[in-house]
Amino acid sequence: MLDHTEALRVGPSASRRRLAQVSAVLRSSPSRLAILVFLALILVFTTLFTTPWAAADGRPTQFSDALFTAASVVCVTGLATVDMATHWSVFGKVVIVIGTQIGAVGVLTFASILGLVVTRRLGLRAKLMAAGDSNPLRTHHGAVPEGQAVRLGEVGTLLATVAVSTLTIEIAVGLLLLPSVLVAGYPFWTAVGDAFYYAAMAFTNTGFSPNAEGLTPFANDYWFLSLLMVAVVAGSIGFPVIRTITKQFRTPRRWSLHVKLTLVTSAVLLLVGAIVYTGLEASNAATLGEAGAGHTAFQALFFSTMTRSGGFATIDVEQMHGASLLVTDMLMFIGGGSASTAGGIKVTTLAVLFLAAVAEARGRRSMEAFGRRIPSDVLRVAVAVVLWGATIVAVATITLLQITRDSLDRVLFEVISAFATCGLSSGISAELPEAGKYVLAATMFLGRVGTVTIAAALAASQSRQLFRRPEERPIVG
């Protein structure tokens, strides 16, 4: 047996070895680190929301509601089990804004910004982590088309763009929204707080409203609603796209394939969504049926924009036709651009799948767009993203149906909104039992950290296959 001195000497050594092993695992997989950091942030914000100071009535918030709110805030979703406008105190609302800012830019990017500020430079590993946050293909071995998102040497510039663009856009939008909030009759300082709150919630694609009436006071204020749409689109197209547009605005021919696919696909989805909503809801008196043609078209465009992941709504989602809800499900599942504040499988994923289908229909071996060839490994990532996303949505929907016994269309809508971190609600979030709140919170978490990140964290990505098996083609289709 070891005496006391030897035990003390061996104990710390064993502890250091265990810590070194844990540290090595985390350093070898930024994806696992991202998941753990997100979980830690959700726990921190859950603790803050359970304090009496966070609630307007000065009483501790129930744990399930605090956890759900923390997941919704950090994952910039916008769903809520309590009235976000009246339940939380000023301190609670400040915590909400801080949480959405952290979640919007991504934990890895946010950590890299802090590191850049402190050290004035980024190490290679930090650059790899930040670049991986902006380009999911970095989680896979093999050649990576850097032009799709951001080059490794440009990570520092991208991180500066993230910080500057976030602050600039939110401050600018907040100042432009202020006159409309004042005209609506709110006291000056309340209007100031609400204007910047709306700006932050729009750019981060969260969708929380600071007042109990929601957007009702601004339902006919085209200036206010247009600014919200601009902020949501700016947040949903992605920071690499923002950086490219600001640097090469006059030379669109030099834009990368990622930028072109993001902008074109986003524009097509916005316009198609607006047209479909106009056609489906024009006869629905409870939504857009009683409005004029111009107002109906504008509101349809606004709602189509919010399906990018914005979460705001000027119409009652629960009163929409079933066909409109299904279209909304599809648009929310697609979401916004990569490396953005939006969720979903991303518009470039849809574009790659569409280009693959076109190439197959034409009998071509490779996918092409805008004079560029897209490698096959990009298609494999796109298929993996869709399959993981569909699996998460299916499992969560089945589980929530069993818990709530609610209708399929309402539950599916809520689950997809949670997975895509959109925030539009069919109304069941406020009615969920505790088990349902935990299921939906987990769905928000999985949707925010990303299907590629989850796959990379669970898979043995470091393994190498030094042989190739015989080829055989199964019958497909």
Assign an overall shape: globular
C-alpha-based Rg, rounded = 23 Å
In sequence order, what are the helices and strands, one letter per element? Answer: HHHHHHHHHHHHHHEEHHHH
Main β-sheet, in a few words?
Answer: 2 strands, antiparallel
Summary of the model, kept short:
The protein has helices at 4-28, 30-50, 63-74, 90-105, 107-119, 124-134, 155-183, 188-203, 222-236, 239-247, 257-281, 293-306, 322-334, 347-361, 376-404, 408-419, 434-449, 451-458, and strands at residues 367-369, 372-374. It is an all-alpha fold and 477 residues long. Strands 1-2 form a two-stranded antiparallel sheet.
Structural write-up:
- The chain has helices at 4-28, 30-50, 63-74, 90-105, 107-119, 124-134, 155-183, 188-203, 222-236, 239-247, 257-281, 293-306, 322-334, 347-361, 376-404, 408-419, 434-449, 451-458, and strands at 367-369, 372-374.
- It contains 18 helices and 2 strands.
- Strands 1-2 form a two-stranded antiparallel sheet.
- The termini are far apart.
- Residues 5-10 and 141-149 have low confidence and may be disordered.
- Helix 2 packs antiparallel against helix 4 (90-105), helix 11 crosses helix 12 (293-306) and helix 13 (322-334) runs parallel beside helix 16.
SSE order and pairing:
Blueprint: H1 4-28, H2 30-50, H3 63-74, H4 90-105, H5 107-119, H6 124-134, H7 155-183, H8 188-203, H9 222-236, H10 239-247, H11 257-281, H12 293-306, H13 322-334, H14 347-361, E1 367-369, E2 372-374, H15 376-404, H16 408-419, H17 434-449, H18 451-458
Antiparallel strand pairs: 1-2
Helix pairs in contact: 1-2, 2-3, 2-4, 2-18, 3-17, 4-5, 5-6, 5-7, 7-8, 7-9, 7-10, 8-9, 9-12, 11-12, 11-13, 11-14, 13-16, 14-15, 15-16, 15-17, 16-17, 17-18
